[in-house]
Every structure is written in C-alpha cells, then in structure tokens.
Design brief:
There is one protein chain. By secondary structure, the chain is of the alpha/beta class. It has one domain: 3-Layer(aba) Sandwich (Restriction Endonuclease), CATH 3.40.91. It has 6 helices and 7 strands; from the N terminus they run E-E-E-E-E-H-H-E-E-H-H-H-H. 31% of the residues are buried.
Amino acid sequence: MQLGLCETAHLLPERAYDRDKKSVDFFLVFSEVTVLVEAKATPLTMISRMGGETLNSDIARALGKGVEQLNVTAALVERHHRDFVDLPTDRPLVGLLVTLEPYYACDNDLVCRAEPGSIPIVICSIGDIEYLVSTDTETIGPMFAGIAREVGRRDWSLRELLSKRRAGKNRILDLAWNQYQLSR
C-alpha cells in the first residue's frame, strides 16, 4: 500500500514463473528506472543484535535470501523471460530490500556481499519507505536512477538519502493514526 502512494511509478505485484517459483514482491516502474522490491519480515534475534553467534545465520536467512530473490528476478527481466516480458528492459534495474525494522550497519559489502553482475541493492526498513513516499515523488525515480549509475557501490543508505528531503503527509499513516481513540 505504501508503494502505491508513489504516483510517478507504475506498481506491479509479484508473479509466478516456471510454474512454482515466485519473483520479488513488487516492481516499481519509473520512466528512468525499474525498482525490484523484496520485503522481509524476519527480524534479527536479540543475540544477533548484540553481535552474538547467530548474527551471520540471521543475516543469511533474511537479507541473504532477499538479495538472492532480487538478483534472480533481475536476471529473468534482463533475459526477457516469458513471464516478465511486460517489464521494460530499456532502463536500469535497482533492488530495494525492505525489512520491518532497520538492519543497522548491513548496507555494505562486508555484511551483504554483492555478487559479480548483481544489481545495486538498497537495504531499508518500512519506516524509510513510509517516509520516502511522503516526499516529493517526482524525484524518487531520478534518485533510484542515480543509484543504478553507480555500479559496484553497496553502501547505499536510503535513510541518509532521505535526510535531505522534507516529508509531507502520508495518507496511510494518517488513516491509521485516526483509528486510535487518543486522536479523537
């Protein structure tokens, strides 16, 4: 629903391919870039948050799987796979890996390795998306196109990019807030 607030992009849902496989969760198609969006609801365990022995397995379980889904789907789009022919191939692809909560310090090549030939991937939380879609949506496509141009860079912080933007209202968050008794 949050991605649907971005009026300058065409939002497409996930799709099945090769009978039993699934693509990323969403495709945001801008005139200058296509953003592949994969959402992961798996949080880090408390031990992992403290740098404990489960950190690497937790990252592999959530972020690693998400990165793999983004790169596999990107390859299918680039190869004009029969189940993806409606997606444009005349513009770059960028991956957006969205988590329910921030995965601090994971948006770099030391933690989440980029495979050769993989698309640029930005790791962010749903809070970042809620903020992003409440900013000037005319500039979101160009922002992601800029990310696509910097091939090989892995330390994109959506939160940092958004720190220079002023947010307006978010209709979905406003609707949710109005459901609370306290707001009356």
